Amino acid sequence: MSPAMKVAMIALWASLFASALAVVWSRHETRTLFVELQSLHADRDALEIEWGQLKLEQSAWATHGRVEQTARGSLRMVIPRPNEVRIVTP
Q1: Which residues, other chains included, contact 77 with Cβ-Cβ below 8 Å and sequence gap of 6+?
Q2: CB contact at 8 A, 77 and 71
């Protein structure tokens, strides 16, 4: 075997080894990123559930009965009598 062939064989083996290492690293990185993606999906799902619960709570607090109850109890508001109402015309 000529010296040029030996150098070419060594170069081919080195490139084969480097390629194998690149494949292993790439697979590892892909799996790591996939695990992170799954974790982020789980976080997103949990946040969507919490958002739904908060919207439900907000709608419960904003019902007309609840607002009126708070206005009468905490703020001591009452509906004005007809003689207390003034209509202003422009």
Answers
A1: 71
A2: yes
